[in-house]
Design goal:
Bound molecules: 1-O-pyrophosphono-5-O-phosphono-alpha-D-ribofuranose
Structural class: alpha/beta
Number of domains: 2
Distance between the termini: 27 Å
Number of helices: 8
Shape: elongated
Order of helices and strands: EHEEHEHEEEHEHEHEEHH
Helix content: 25-40%
C-alpha cells in the first residue's frame, strides 16, 4: 500500500486525473472525505503547503507538490518525477510602471514564500521586512502594506487585474512527485513501478 499526499486547489483535479489514467482506475474524493482508498493506493487530500510535511514525517510515502513549496520548506525529500503540471514562476511583483529601487536601505515584501524571499534579497545585500501572508498577496502593495510582493505568476492575470506587474523571476516551478526517504528505501519496487506508469502517461499527454 502506498499513501500519497495530493494538493488541494487548482491542480487537484489534474493530479488525480494523471493517477487515474496511469493506474487505470477512477480516483475521486467523496465530498468532504480527506482519505481516498482504492486497491493498493491511499490518497490524502492535503493543503499544498502541508504536502512536504506529511511526506517528510512519514504521514505519506509520496507527495505531489510544487517546486516552490519544496524550496520554501527546505525539507529533505527525494524528487522522483516532474509531473509537468502547474508550470509557473515565482516573481517580484510591483505596482505597474514602478521600477524596483535596489538602492533603498530596506524594503517591505509581502509573500507566502518567506524563506525564498528572504534568501533572494539577502543575496542582493538588501535589508527586508518580510510580511507573511497566506493568500491574496497582490493586495498588499495596493493598500500600502508592502513595497512589493514575491508571488506565483501563472497566467499573469491576477497581477494584471490588480494593477501590478512582474519584475525579476526568482525561480521557475512545476509540480513534482516526491518521496519520503525511508519509504523509498522500504517500498522502492512499488514506488518505481508507480513512477514508470506516471512517466509513461506524462510522455504521451
Ligand atoms: C496564486 C498566486 C497568485 C495567483 C497567480 O494564488 O498566489 O495570486 O495564483 O495566478 P495567475 O498568474 O494565473 O493569475 P492562488 O490562486 O493559489 O490563491 P491564494 O491567493 O489564495 O494563494
Amino acid at each position: 500500500m502506498l499513501t500519497i499526499a495530493l494538493p488541494k486547489g487548482r491542480i487537484a483535479k489534474e493530479t488525480l486525473d494523471i493517477f487515474s489514467a496511469s493506474l487505470g482506475q477512477n480516483f475521486v474524493f467523496d465530498d468532504r472525505k480527506l482519505i481516498l482508498e482504492k486497491g493498493d493506493f491511499r490518497f490524502l487530500d492535503v493543503r499544498n503547503q502541508d504536502v512536504p510535511t506529511y511526506v517528510k514525517y512519514g504521514g505519506a510515502d509520496l507527495g505531489v507538490v510544487g517546486l516552490d513549496v519544496l524550496e520554501e520548506k527546505q525539507l529533505k525529500l527525494i524528487k522522483l518525477l516532474d509531473l509537468k503540471l502547474g508550470a509557473c514562476k515565482l516573481c517580484i511583483g510591483l505596482k505597474a510602471g514602478q521600477k524596483f529601487d535596489w538602492t533603498k536601505s530596506k524594503i517591505k515584501v509581502a509573500t507566502k514564500h518567506e524563506n525564498i524571499a528572504k534568501r533572494f534579497f539577502e543575496k542582493k545585500a538588501m535589508a527586508v521586512d518580510i510580511i507573511k501572508l497566506y493568500g491574496s498577496i497582490e493586495l498588499a502593495p495596493l493598500v500600502g502594506l508592502s513595497d512589493c510582493i514575491v508571488d506565483i505568476v501563472q497566467t499573469g492575470d491576477t497581477m494584471k487585474q490588480n494593477g501590478l506587474e512582474a519584475g525579476d523571476t526568482i525561480m521557475q516551478s512545476s509540480v513534482f512527485l516526491v518521496a519520503n526517504k525511508n519509504s523509498y528505501y522500504i517500498k522502492k519496487d512499488e514506488i518505481l513501478a508507480l513512477r514508470a506508469k506516471l512517466r509513461k502517461n506524462i510522455e504521451i499527454s
